[in-house]
Fold this protein.
Amino acid sequence: MEETIISPDGTQEYFINMGPQHPSTHGVLRLVLTLDGEIIEKVEPHLGYIHRSIEKMCEKDNYRQIIHLTDRMDYLSAHMNNHAVSLAIENALEVEIPDRAKYIRVIMDELTRISSHTLWWGVMGMDLGAITSFLYGFRDHEYITEIFEETCGARLTMNYNVPGGVMFDIHPNFVKHVKDFIADFKTKLPEYDTLLSGNVIFLERTKGIGILTKEDAISFGVTGPAGRASGFSNDVRKKEPYGIYDQLDFKEILYTDGDTYSRYKARIDEMWESIKIIEQLIDNIPEGDFQAKTRKVIKLPKGEFYQKVETARGELGVYIVSDGKMNPYRMKFRSPGFSNLSALDRMARGGKIADLVAIMSTLDLVVPDIDR
Amino acid sequence: MSAIGNYFRSIFSGLKTLFQGMAVTGYYFRNARKEIITQQYPDNKDTLRMYDRFRGIVVMPHDENNLHACTGCSACEIACPNGSIEIIAPRVVDPETGKKKKVINQHIYHYSMCTLCNLCILSCPTEAIVMDQTFEHAVYDRSLLTQILNKPGSSLNPNVKE
């Protein structure tokens, strides 16, 4: 037992458990808070409540089967997770993927990014007490899941990428529905700003809260929109382009304040960039195969392979150690959520519990991604 | 003086943003019929159709003569990442050719372990199993989730080439 520390003025710091069953942790994340009154002195995340040993499970599966497990890590960016593993396998096999598959993959990735950010926006509003935003966010999220359902056959865990391309060709209605969605979403996205971004209550709760400096962002490895809001330029799509991102015209969103509001704005702006990317691609999907021919039993050459992609939360790294057999010797995922969570303590210190909720919302934590 | 001015300005800008937000809600309140996006789910069961590619459950289609296309090759069993498919196919001597041949006895499917990843469907060389579009699969007993996909008395369609 630790000794209770009583400070000279007679106050006493105490501990409180936030989670594992707490609505604002968005899953089973347990935070042990050390408090002085309502001021947070320390945040200690405790993981392990939803650990499913996905990395270990990959060691018994063959390379085709691994991909469907990655859907279940960061379920809101399932396509990007699949894309990362597929790319790692393809790079190791030195397979050339058809252009059509590359285009489809990038469109799907960007649709996933929008759907993830719309859901995040709705949930963020709800965390801060605005129920309305949840309904609006889900409305647009549903539109995209319908598109996924039509082409991939599932709404959330799509498992659409296979080594060498994509599982099916796109549905005949896919192009039309995506165009309808983009046209519709362009009128809906300004509503987001009207409802929440300019709202004075929202501004009071986000501006100047949970500041993360650029140095801290780099040292903690905070990537994705959360890192870019601190001025840490880390977009994998720009730095190490994969797929066809090097041929596309889009901006990397950078803010310098590093507070909760910057992280919020970075995500809203990213949705506009994703719309721009989809508009460039949707009319130009080339004809041809959607899948390259691969052997039925995939065996990677001996060696180590690494591939990183930009998911909706940040940089996802896939590291495969192969000993030349059907299944990997070791599989390691560098998940964005885990690194982003590590900076939570630095951001929340000195703030109130209510600020912690706002900070956690803008980090956009998906607990199954943190705890694989 | 400016402090008081700022104070009132912040009140008015606060009210303004509140009303801007309310205006969005008000628009949908007034045009509620134009923008209906919810589905009346249990009531629209008769007209509700899932997409053709929707992955609901693995089934084995049988034709009117109770013939299926499963040769018992175990490709789906090998492709399945979760071990949710078990195939019992003993080797039986074919009376015509005298050769030993796999004949499907039971195609056991554990729905409780299935993640609906579609790999078994892709691996099937004879398209004997497909994904069904139904989605109401809740049962009261866990054992009901284990199904035998080939119907009793069914046999292999002779037109299917191995």
Remarks:
- The mean pLDDT of chain A is 87.
- Chain A has one domain: 14-370.
- The longest strand of chain A covers residues 39-46.
